[in-house]
Design brief:
Layout: E1 2-3, H1 16-31, E2 37-42, H2 50-55, H3 63-70, E3 75-82, H4 83-87, E4 91-92, E5 97-98, H5 99-112, E6 117-123, H6 129-139, E7 145-148, H7 158-161, E8 179-183, H8 191-204, E9 209-214, H9 227-235, E10 243-245, H10 247-253, E11 258-260, H11 261-277, H12 287-290, H13 302-325, H14 331-344, H15 354-366, E12 378-382, E13 387-392, H16 399-412, H17 423-436, H18 446-456, H19 461-467, E14 477-480, H20 486-494, E15 498-501
Parallel strand pairs: 2-8, 2-9, 3-6, 3-8, 6-7, 14-15
Antiparallel strand pairs: 1-13, 4-5, 10-11, 12-13, 12-14
Helix pairs in contact: 1-3, 9-13, 9-14, 13-14, 16-18, 18-20
Length: about 525
């Protein structure tokens, strides 16, 4: 057990209620600039924006959906998803869900908030079999589905794009309310093209429609090298996004504003397209002006936010390393984030749980017997008060399981040497895995450990006390000396723990059951 002074990861630096109020007012004000219709492109995560919550402590990860609930009488929701993302089974890393499954989850989540999805649009569709299955699945559950094809010459051939064979060839999406929120899982989902396609159709019908963007990051009125904006670059390192001073805004308004390369590079094209399909008074002078973003005005403690954003950049470095190790990412992304860390003047050891986790792994190697699969693993968890709890693997438990049990014992004030799980319970689960399920790895994952703990509660008062402490682990920081197997990663995600790990495999086996 360690203690780190001045733990700042639980402090608040952002006023989420102020942000919701100002962002709602800004959206309504933007909608009032257009007589009939505003198409609002929603960038980033619509639900459970944990990146924003980590970078801006106090930010409600469900801020966007709460905002929509406030405006629900004025809003229709359209979800876009790129056909290629469905075909490639592209994954959303924070949930471990593919983009198509995440779309289904988003529809369910919106319904839980009494918000209905008007339609789902599959963009750049070209009859892919996997996409047809997705479309059929939605249609047979009563969801309106549309498909938009690729436009030849997009985005440079303005004559084709703004014509009946370009946007005009896309099926018009029927909506009823004055604000149409167009969202989608991940970048490049076709949100902007869908908005502009709809505006083309609206103007053909005599409707004076407008367009705007709802982006959380980068924050336009924070400095270019502010840790919050650097953390955004780290989060999009695989896309090659780079923050830049918006030259269009600087020239037109004389104000320095921060945007990112893709929006700045495509703005002249978007501006020319809009000039063809919209009224002149509806045009924007810069990509920053096109956005609606009040995030910077709701920061209440700059030091807390700077610290949190710096920590997020380090987390992203480890994630990029792990993505490269598992074949899901390019090494260049990790190298890019390392450069950003150098700009911030930090190393991986500025994440408090890294060194203790590595030390726990070294301690596991010195103990008698072998770890799970012959590999020695360690884990470290930082609690709200700065105390760091460690755990190591054994033939019975994974390192994550050991660490979590040690943490909740500490929080419950139970002796460190007390066994929360009776040996016969662990032995029973191990026998099930080995003799019935024929698993090679019989030590308990975190999910299995928590299940065994819950079963022990009726007969073990200590287990009951420890179980009550699990909720106190939410938003705590954790590092593991190896890539977590699914049973550990899922359990830690459900507990709301911010996890990083080394790009080291926990077993020499290539196929893990």
């Amino acid at each position: 057990m360690y203690n780190v002074s001045e733990a700042t990861h639980m402090k608040i630096g952002f006023d989420s209620e102020k942000y919701l109020r100002e962002q709602s007012e800004a959206i309504l004000a933007r909608a009032n600039q257009f007589d009939d219709k505003l198409y609002l492109e929603f960038g980033g995560k619509l639900i459970c924006d944990y990146h924003a919550a980590r970078v801006l402590p106090g930010f409600d990860p469900d801020s966007k959906i709460k905002l929509l609930q406030r405006l629900k009488d004025k809003v229709d929701i359209v979800i876009c998803i790129h056909a290629g993302a469905i075909e490639a089974r592209k994954m959303r890393a924070d949930f471990g869900l593919s983009y198509d499954i995440d779309t289904l989850k988003t529809i369910d989540d919106l319904r839980d908030w009494d918000l209905n999805v008007r339609a789902v649009v599959v963009t750049r569709y070209c009859e892919q079999p996997a996409v047809r299955v997705f479309l059929n699945r939605l249609a047979r559950r009563g969801i309106r589905v549309y498909t938009h094809r690729s436009i030849e010459g997009y985005p440079s051939d303005i004559d084709t794009i703004a014509s009946s064979s370009g946007y005009g060839a896309n099926v018009y999406i029927e909506t009823e309310r004055p604000i149409v929120v167009v969202t989608g899982p991940g970048p490049n989902s076709g949100k902007a093209a869908t908005c502009l396609s709809q505006i083309y159709h609206e103007h053909q019908r005599g409707v004076r429609a407008g367009y705007a963007k709802f982006e959380t990051f980068p924050v336009w009125n924070l400095p270019l090298k502010h840790p919050v904006n650097i953390a955004y670059e780290a989060a999009t390192a695989d896309l090659g996004d780079v923050n830049m001073v918006d030259p269009f805004h600087l020239e037109a308004r004389g104000v320095t504003a921060i945007n990112y390369n893709r929006d700045i590079e495509i703005f002249p094209v978007v501006q020319r397209i809009c000039a063809r399909i919209m009224d002149p008074e509806c045009l924007y002078a810069s990509p920053t002006e096109m956005g609606v973003n009040r995030v910077g005005f709701a920061i209440t403690d700059s030091a807390v936010v700077r610290h949190a954003a710096t920590q997020e950049t380090i987390r992203r470095y480890f994630r990029c390393l792990c993505d490269h190790a598992t074949g899901h990412g390019d090494k260049a992304a990790a190298e890019r984030v390392k450069v950003l860390m150098d700009e911030l003047g930090v190393t991986e050891f500025d994440r408090n749980v890294v060194a203790p986790a590595r030390k726990a792994a070294a301690a596991a190697e010195k103990q008698p017997g072998k770890g799970s699969g012959g590999v020695f693993c360690g884990a470290a968890l930082e609690l709200e008060d700065g105390t760091i709890i460690t755990g190591k693997n054994s033939p019975l438990l994974h390192a994550a399981s050991s660490c979590i049990l040690n943490a909740i014992k500490h929080l419950a004030g139970l002796p460190d040497g007390l066994h929360l799980l009776a040996p016969e319970v662990i032995d029973s689960v191990s026998k099930l895995k080995r003799d019935v399920l024929h698993n090679k790895q019989i030590s308990l994952t975190l999910v299995e450990t928590l299940t065994a703990l819950s079963v022990s509660v009726p007969s073990n008062p200590a287990a009951s006390m420890a179980m009550e402490m699990l909720s106190k682990l939410q938003n705590c920081e954790m590092h593991i000396s190896h890539l977590p197997p699914a049973g550990d990663e899922v359990g830690l995600r459900r507990l709301g723990i911010n996890l990083t790990s080394e790009p080291v495999f926990a077993s020499r086996n290539i196929f893990i059951e």
